[in-house]
Design a protein that fits this description.
The complex is a heterodimer. Chain A is mainly alpha-helical. Chain A is 65% helix and 0% strand. The chains are: A mainly alpha, B mainly alpha. Chains A and B meet through helix 1, helix 3, helix 4, helix 5 and helix 9 of A and helix 2, helix 4, helix 5, helix 6 and helix 7 of B.
Chain lengths: 297, 313
């Protein structure tokens, strides 16, 4: 009886389409990698080739330069209004992402510690306002924040990119909930021993919230690396542009040119690699982080 | 002056005094610790909320300070054909993507729930697009859907004998393309949340049902699905909130072709329209009022989420 409803047909019948779908999921990635290493003649061939015959790095850098129809400028030869071309955008993304992640989580965990563990007049009100602000979408904030940045003269600056991104209400809320579960006795004991609040925070609390902090780190890095709207509004020059802006520029300037798909694919590939490597390296933390926070990147 | 001193034991005064000093020191430290976040939070999260609400009642255009015009911006919206178009487009996008994303995410979680090595690999593959930037993903799909004959989508269509489709100029394809791209990007994340939900369901119940002769379909429908209800509600509501805010894809595909709304405004959704009003036409007052309507929609979703979440506890 039991075996009758576990027929192999049913068991594998569901799996086969899923595995096929998993392969289809990969197809766009395959197309991206393939396109990055195709030569210009191979890129415009009809029907397109599904296996690469003559792999090349010309989409990244073409030593022959712009010689149509078979040679066009590679990715690192474009975006010449930035000091180091595409590399400028890459380094800006790296700098902005790391700075925002470190600073925003530092100030968030300090604030969360106070809201969770320090008796302070007014902390209930602060917590309520922080939680309520989480409901307000960024679309409400970005027009007035743009005006603030403009008044401060921070258009086309790193501080314009970084500082408005620092107060993260969700991080404060999440870390505060996590710290609530730490036993008060431990902290009280340290206080009686004369430890300052800064010491308690640094030596007792911080090591205990590492799981929560690593989950927040992953999502902050991911969110900031991929952030598009805010840089789009506050940065117009190439010098301070981030990777999504570089992609957006290439997307609007060279998309319809013949054989430029290779350059676009190369740019997309380089923009995706860091976060994909981070995911593959911290897969376990990713999955735990999603379960812990209910966020999905 | 000496009276109070003689009434109290000197060491006790000292102790309470010390305790007071310690308390004040702790409070001082507390304020210092919360200050960096609090100041930035007030400047970049609280003040802009107040300012935006004010702007939404003005005709501010970025140049001269706006005049207070009452609820005119909000009244104007209902007569604004493009806004209504954006609203209906967003609604159809939201309904399609949220239902497909939830169904596919659940199906994947069910199919891949056994922790075998092959399943683990498949899970990682499905989740991979979620960590890739939307901008890179959109550029990638744009080359796939290109109308040129070397495009991947049209090559596959040709293989089945279907003629070239000019995806980005065909109004009927605008919403389906957005749905395909975000389904590809989103269902892996949904799957992970469903897998976490499935983990909390004990195997005893489904096994007992299996011994009693329940088929796998029955077990899914009568045991697993009801137990996954809180997870499903969470996914649907957060999915709705996220989908209403779609921007990157629409901007990257259509703003480069000239109209941020795509052919005949067939891809025009709320946030790109807001961006167009605010940052292309600099009608920052009107754009702010659109943002508050969006907030209203999201607020209602959140309230439904909280209500349903409480009922299911």
């Amino acid at each position: 009886m039991v075996g009758s409803n576990r027929s192999p047909w049913l068991k594998y019948g569901i799996r086969v389409p899923v595995f096929l779908l998993a392969m289809t999921m990969l197809l766009p990635y395959y197309w991206m990698v393939l396109g990055s290493f195709k030569t210009v003649p191979e890129l415009v061939k009809v029907p397109p080739s599904f296996f690469i015959t003559d792999p090349t790095l010309n989409n990244f850098y073409d030593p022959l330069g712009n010689k149509p129809p078979n040679h066009i400028l590679g990715l690192f030869q474009r975006l010449t209004d930035a000091p180091f071309g595409f590399l400028t955008f890459f380094l800006n993304s790296l700098f902005v992402t790391i700075t925002i992640t470190v600073l925003s989580l530092l100030i968030a965990s300090l604030a969360a510690y106070v809201l969770a563990k320090v008796q302070l007049p007014g902390r209930e009100i602060i917590f309520i306002v922080v939680v309520a602000s989480m409901m307000v979408p960024w679309q409400v904030l970005f027009i007035p924040n743009f005006l603030t940045i403009k008044d401060l003269g921070w258009i086309n600056t790193y501080q314009g990119l970084i500082i408005p991104a620092l107060p993260k209400a969700f991080a404060v809320f999440f870390l505060r909930q996590y710290m609530k579960s730490l036993p008060d006795e431990m902290l009280e004991a340290a206080r009686i021993d004369g430890a300052s609040e800064f010491r308690i925070f640094g030596q007792i609390v911080l090591p205990l919230i590492i799981p929560a902090l690593s989950a927040m780190t992953i999502f902050t890095v991911l969110g900031e690396w991929n952030n598009f709207v805010w840089p789009l509004i506050v940065v117009q020059d190439a010098e301070h542009g981030t990777l999504p802006l570089a992609l957006s520029r290439l997307n609007s300037t060279i998309f319809s040119g013949p054989g430029t798909q290779g350059v676009l694919m190369a740019a997309s590939l380089l923009a995706s690699i860091p976060t994909v490597i981070m995911f593959l390296a911290f897969q376990k933390q990713f999955v735990e982080g999603i379960a812990l926070t209910g966020q999905k990147g | 002056m000496a009276i109070s001193e003689s009434n109290v034991r000197p060491d006790l005064t000292k102790r309470t005094l010390n305790a007071r000093v310690a308390l004040f020191r702790r409070m001082g430290a507390g304020y210092i610790m919360i200050a960096p976040f609090l100041i930035l939070f007030l400047v970049f999260a609280v003040w802009p909320i107040i300012n935006s609400l004010y702007l939404s009642f003005t005709d501010f255009n970025g140049v001269k300070s706006g005049e207070f015009i009452g609820t005119k911006n909000y009244e104007r919206m209902w007569g604004d054909e493009r806004f209504i178009k954006a609203l209906t487009n967003t609604a159809s996008y939201v309904v399609l993507i949220v239902s497909l994303n939830t169904i596919c995410g659940l199906a994947l979680a069910m199919a891949l729930r056994a922790p075998t090595a092959l399943n683990q690999i498949c899970r990682a593959l499905f989740f991979l697009p979620a960590v890739t930037s939307t901008v890179a993903v959109t550029v990638l799909w744009r080359t796939i859907f290109t109308s040129a004959d070397y495009g991947l989508a049209n090559t596959i269509l040709h293989f089945f004998g279907i003629k070239t489709i000019v995806f980005f100029s065909s109004p009927e394809w605008s919403i389906p393309i957005l749905v395909i791209i975000s389904l590809w990007g989103g269902m892996g994340g949904t799957m992970i949340i469903f897998l976490a939900g499935l983990q909390s369901i004990s195997g005893d119940m489904t096994e007992a049902a299996a011994i009693d002769g329940a088929t796998s379909v029955q077990r899914f429908w009568y045991i697993i699905l009801p137990l996954l209800k809180p997870t499903t509600i969470y996914i649907v509501i957060t999915g709705l909130i996220g989908a209403f805010q779609v921007f990157d894809m629409v901007y990257l595909i259509y703003s480069t072709v000239g109209n941020i709304g795509g052919p005949l405004d067939s891809a025009l959704t709320i946030v790109p329209y807001l961006y167009d009003r605010g940052f292309t036409r600099f009608q920052l007052g009107y754009a702010s009022s659109i943002a508050w309507v969006l907030f209203g929609i999201i607020f209602i979703m959140t309230m439904i989420n909280l209500r349903l979440g409480r009922e299911n506890k």
